[in-house]
Design a protein that fits this description.
The structure holds two protein chains of two kinds. Chain A is mainly alpha-helical. Chain A is built from six helices and no strands. In chain A, α2 packs antiparallel against α3. Chain A starts with a helix and ends in a 6-residue tail after the last helix. By secondary structure, chain B is mostly helical. The chains are: A mainly alpha, B mainly alpha. Chains A and B meet through α1, α2, α3, α4 and α5 of A and α1, α2 and α3 of B.
């Protein structure tokens, strides 16, 4: 049962990921955005399988919540209907597929043959919000504060960019 | 179906990364390229969480926490740029944005 949920989450993540980039039925960005949200939720399932409960919650809140709302909002704002009718360049598609498939093959082979990937999870390892928060507010307090400055800078930048008359 | 180990999680991460990379290479819509970038970031997060679990070290999860924060800021700024671009050029298609081409 434990194994089955891993395979289910992994399969769903990859399937929805594929539907984000190459949906055979629709090239509408809204469809892609919806499948991106589903990808994030299945990925949160994988995080739960890895005992990272706090990150799974944050993944759903931030990605499937905030980021997806932002994406959908901008898609509605831009009205990208005519984009769906463009032709796809076959040569570029073939070259892209071949190079990405080669990269995937090499990386999978590398992981399969390296000794570190046989590591077993140590007993009693945990990813609870308590231990994560303790680490975040002791060893990583400086990056944490820098992150708040980053968010402030992003906010100011976005307001500046969205002003109608850029001076 | 063997018991899922580190290798299985890394395989999922690699495949997800390659899907995102394919999206960045093959798609021509700026919004979808942006979504593929999110897939790339998430694939990296999955690999980090898997390493964190199988080494009994929480620091990987801290890094993922920071990745999620930076990704949120990056999405906000990037989408604002796309909106500003769309206002100026009325397009979000990379093949129309070739004014720097020689």
């Amino acid at each position: 049962m434990q194994d089955f949920s891993f395979y289910l989450c992994a399969f769903l993540t990859l399937l929805f990921g594929l539907l984000v980039v190459a949906n055979p039925f629709s090239r509408n960005p809204v469809t892609s955005a919806m499948f991106l949200a589903l990808t994030m939720i299945s990925l949160a399932g994988l995080f739960v399988k890895l005992d990272a409960f706090f990150l799974a919650a944050v993944q759903i809140l931030v990605y499937a919540g905030a980021v997806m709302v932002l994406f959908l909002f901008v898609i509605m704002l831009l009205d990208l209907k005519e984009e769906a009718r463009r032709k796809i360049k076959v040569a570029g598609l073939v070259i892209g597929t071949v190079s990405v498939a080669a990269l995937a093959f090499l990386a999978l082979k590398l992981v399969h043959e390296s000794p570190f990937s046989q590591a077993q999870a140590p007993e009693g390892s945990e990813g609870s919000a308590l231990s994560l928060g303790k680490l975040l507010f002791t060893d990583f307090i400086l990056p944490f504060e820098v992150m708040s400055i980053l968010l402030l800078v992003a906010m100011v930048g976005v307001i500046l960019l969205s002003k109608r008359d850029l001076k | 179906m063997s018991h899922p180990g580190l290798e299985h999680y890394l395989a999922v991460s690699i495949l997800l990364f390659c899907l995102g990379l394919f999206g960045v290479i093959a798609r021509r819509n700026l919004m979808i390229i942006y979504m593929s970038l999110e897939l790339l970031l998430n694939a990296a997060s999955l690999a980090l969480v898997a390493f964190s679990k199988f080494n009994g070290n929480l620091r990987g999860q801290i890094l993922v926490f920071f990745i999620i924060t930076v990704a949120a800021a990056e999405v906000a700024v990037g989408l604002a740029l796309i909106v500003a671009l769309y206002r100026k050029r009325q397009t979000a298609h990379v093949e129309d944005l070739v004014s720097m081409k020689l």
